[in-house]
Structure formats: C-alpha cells, structure tokens
Amino acid sequence: MTDTSTNSSAFDAEKEAGFGDYFALLKPRVMSLVVFTALVGLIVAPVSVHPMVALAAILFIALGGGASGALNMWWDADIDRLMNRTRKRPIPAGKVAEGEAFAIGIALSFMAVVMLFLAANAVAAGLLAFTIFFYVVIYTMWLKRATPQNIVIGGAAGAFPPMIGWAVATGSVSVEAVLMFALTFAWTPPHFWALALFVKNDYAKAHVPMLTVTHGRAATRRHILGYTLALAVVALALGLTSIGGPVYMTVAVVLNAMFIKGAFAISRRDDAACEADQHLVERRFFKLSLAYLFGHFGALLVEATLAPYGLGGW
Questions:
Q1: At CA 159, angle to CA 157 and CA 163, rounded to 5?
Q2: Cβ(170)–Cβ(180) under 8 Å?
Q3: Which 3 state secondary structure label does DSSP give 10?
Q4: What is the pTM for the complete model shown?
Q5: Rounded CA Rg of the chain
Q6: Per-residue model confidence as pLDDT tens digits over 71-80
Q7: Rounded Cα gap, residues 16 and 96, in angstroms
Q8: By the 8 A CB rule, do 236 and 208 touch?
Q9: Does 219 score more than 70 pLDDT?
Q10: What are residue 186's phi and psi, to 5 degrees?
Q11: Which architecture, in CATH terms, is 10-171?
C-alpha cells in the first residue's frame, strides 16, 4: 500500500466516522462497569464528598477508562480484524483511523489524570494513572499475547476503579478498598474464561494465547471452578468489613451459591455436550457473571444508603 492510499484510507475513515463510532472506541460497556464500581467505592467510603467533587471525579475516572479502551483498540487493531466478535469495532470497520484512536487515547488519559488530581487528590490520580498504564502496557501490549495467564494478571486493571473511588473520598487505601479490588480481580478469570469457551476459535484465529487455546476447554473448565470457589471466599470476606451488612451478605450468599452451581455444571461438561447445545450452559454462566458483579456492588450501595437510618451495616 502506498503512502497516498494510506492517507486516503485515513481520510475516508475520518470522514465516515460519527459520534457513535468515537463513543464505541471508548468501550462504553466496560466504561459502565468502571463508573458503577468507582461510584460505589466513593459512596461507601467513610468520608463524605461534595456532590460536585464526586460528579467530577466519576467523570474523570470514566474518561480514564475510555482512554484505556481507545488505546487498547489502537494496539489490538490487527487481531480485532481477525475475530468475529471484534471485527465491527471502529478501527477494523474502517470508521476510525489507528493514529486517530491513539491520539484520542493519549489526550483523554492525560486529561483524566490531571483533572482527577485537581478535583480530588494525588492518591486517586496516581491510581488512575497506574490503572491506565497497567491495562494498556502490561495487559494489552504484553500479557494478552504472551501468556495464558493474561486475563488473570491483567484483570487487575479492571479491579482498580472501586479503589480509586474510595481514594477520592479518603485520600488513602484501606482493607475495604483492597477487598473490593480483590472481588473484581477474582471475578475476572471465570467471567472471561466462560466467554473464551464459546469463542475459542476467535482467539485461536488471532493467535491470542487464551487458556482455551493453550490448554484446551477441559482445563479451562477446571480453572473456572477453582477461581469461582476462591471468589466466593473473597465475596463473603468483604461482607464482614465495615461496608458489609445483612443485605450484602444475603445477596452474596445467593449469588455465590448460583455461581458455584454454574461452575460445577460447566466442570462436568465435555466438548460434545457443549457443541450439542451450542455452549448453552457456558453462555448462561457468562450472563450470570455480569449480574454477579453488579449485584455485589449494588448490595454495597444499598448498605451505604440504609446506614444513615441505622438500617445498614452490622
């Protein structure tokens, strides 16, 4: 391809891109999880925050999450073009040029960190900067294509938002913040491995060393069960802290019982059964995993809402 054709393609992409394409570049689904868990971390903290400060902080945390998404799409454009579930993203679809995505990601990263520092404090801004670095450099550029443990270690990037929210309010990190981090961290592997079970061919085609590709589906099913059991311990431990309470523990017990039941069901299946029902059990488990995390953080939010009336907490 000549320089002329390259420039023309970039121009065409820029010309065709609309607001929706740029918004998709920021991975809005992931951003919604970032915003929600960060907001919960901020609200359940023992220090009150002025509503305008809280609103600004959540906005800048969201921008940081969106910046990470844009930089992830910039770096992964080559493999996104190969996978069915990602080929319609703005860059592989030819809507946004790679260089443009990179520029947006860098600009939003800088803006988010600086503005969070000005709106809140250095601890929160530092955690946000590290989160962006970890997701883009450690996970996207290195781990994702280097090891089947990519999603295990890389999951830390998605686990920082509640800790950042807590730091916005308190200017520090505590055991409650660490356990909120640990909840999301331990949830990430079974969540993504469930997805990997029914999109294995996509990862294989793109040469991404997901556990299903390197060790097979049987090993992945065993790993899902092991991490699900460990996740239940973390979830219940969080309920015993100052931000837990009867509402949270009830939700945690029910959701973890359902999650463990689903993980056991997956562990007993084989490839023939999965192919026969088109991975129905795995798809249900993946959907449950989405409700699982929102349910736990939603229960923490309820505890914090009831606390002023003497109804929440222990």
A1: 115
A2: no
A3: helix
A4: 0.91
A5: 20
A6: 999 999 999 9
A7: 8
A8: no
A9: yes
A10: -75, -25
A11: Orthogonal Bundle (1.10)
What one-character DSSP code corresponds to residue 41? H
State how far the alpha carbon of 257 is from the alpha carbons of 192, 249, 278, in Å: 19, 12, 24
Do the beta carbons of residue 260 and residue 233 sit within 8 Å?
A: no
215-to-41, 141, 160, 199 alpha-carbon distances in Å: 36, 22, 29, 15
Residue 298 has pLDDT above 70, yes or no: yes
How much is the pLDDT for 293?
Answer: 96
- Helix 161-170 crosses helix 175-198 at what angle (to 10 degrees)? 160
Helices (H), the chain: 3-16, 19-25, 28-44, 51-75, 77-80, 98-119, 122-133, 144-146, 150-154, 156-159, 161-170, 175-198, 200-205, 211-214, 216-239, 246-267, 271-276, 280-306
What is the per-residue pLDDT across 123-178, written as a single tens digit (0 to 9) for each?
999 999 999 999 999 999 999 999 999 999 999 999 999 999 999 999 999 999 99
**Alpha helices of 155-199 — where are they, by DSSP H?**
156-159, 161-170, 175-198
Name which of 25, 164, 37 is nearest 103 in CA terms. Answer: 25
Planar angle of CA 275, 277, 281, nearest 5 degrees: 105
- Joined tokens for residue 112: 């988010």
DSSP state of 17: -
Q: Taking the domains of the chain in order of start, what are their residue ranges?
A: 10-171, 174-314
Q: Is 270 exposed, middle or buried (0-12, 13-18, 19+ CB in 10 A)?
A: exposed
Please enumerate in sequence order all residues whose Cβ is within 8 A of that of 93, keeping only pairs 6 or more positions apart, or say none.
21, 87
Burial of 272 per CB tally in 10 Å (0-12, 13-18, 19+):
exposed
